[in-house]
Amino acid sequence: MSNGGRTAVACALAWVIPGGGHLYLGKRVKSIVFFAVVTLTFLFGLAMDGRVYLASPDQPLSYLATFANLGVGPMDLIGRRASYDRIIFRFPEEMDRALYQEILDRTRKRILAPTHEYGTTFILTAGLMNILLILDVFDMGIGRKT
Amino acid sequence: MLRSHFLTLVLFAALVSIFFATLTRETLKDALKLGGLMMASMIGISLVVAYLMYFFPLG
């Protein structure tokens, strides 16, 4: 496989499984540590009643937060399921009254938990850490980092 | 789950320190050194900031 193809596969693996890109590039011990740290951070966040963000045109920063959440890969779907009991990425339109109310109720329920903010920070951090891992794998793939 | 603010801080500092130490250092010795320093800094600075915030008015 060409160097570019190898780098692309490594980056994709890094997104799908935290540490997967490092494992593909032969960094076995690092990959185990990264998988454990990112997964634990994400799970601790969920256990602390944290929630994943939904993109909303009313709150432009929510797009960045949603992007950070998506950084953790398919694990993000577990977070969406746990937070809203469904796989959803955008805050529903107000016209869709039933869904809008349901998502609002679920968000309020999470926010009322005393550890909600910590949990949400843990979940965001897990996503951001995995994005850094993807960039690290990219640097190694193109030879910028040994 | 954790109800203590301090334990949550220690847990967060530990996870982030392990991550960055593993990411930026190649040997175990270097990683432990950086991880320990980073964790101690995060906890120490947070305690100093928390102490300073004690003087802020509540209302």
In short:
The complex is a heterodimer of chains A (146) and B (59). Chain A has 146 residues and is an all-alpha fold.
What does this entry look like structurally?
- The complex is a heterodimer of chains A (146) and B (59).
- Chain A is mainly α.
- Chain A has one domain.
- Chain A has seven helices and no strands.
- In chain A, helix 1 packs antiparallel against helix 7, helix 3 packs antiparallel against helix 7 and helix 4 packs across helix 7.
- Chain A is elongated, with a radius of gyration of 17 Å.
- Chain B has one domain.
- In chain B, helix 1 packs antiparallel against helix 2.
- At the A-B interface, helix 3 and helix 7 of A face helix 1 of B.
Runs of chain A with pLDDT <50, length 5+? none
Structural class of chain A comes to mainly alpha
**Oligomeric category:** heterodimer
SSE class of chain B: mainly alpha
Question: How widely separated are the two ends of chain B?
Answer: 29 Å
* Number of H/I helices of chain A: 7
What shape does the CA trace of chain A take?
elongated
Number of strands of chain A: 0
- Rounded to an integer in angstroms, the radius of gyration calculated over CA atoms of chain B is 14 Å
The major sheet of chain B is characterized as:
none
Distance between the termini of chain A: 19 Å
Rg over CA atoms of chain A: 17 Å
Question: Percent of residues of chain B in beta strands?
Answer: under 5%
Average pLDDT of chain A, rounded to a whole number, is 93
Order of helices and strands of chain A: HHHHHHH
Strand percentage of chain A, roughly?
under 5%
Instruction: Indicate the overall shape of chain B.
Output: elongated
Helix content of chain A: 55-70%
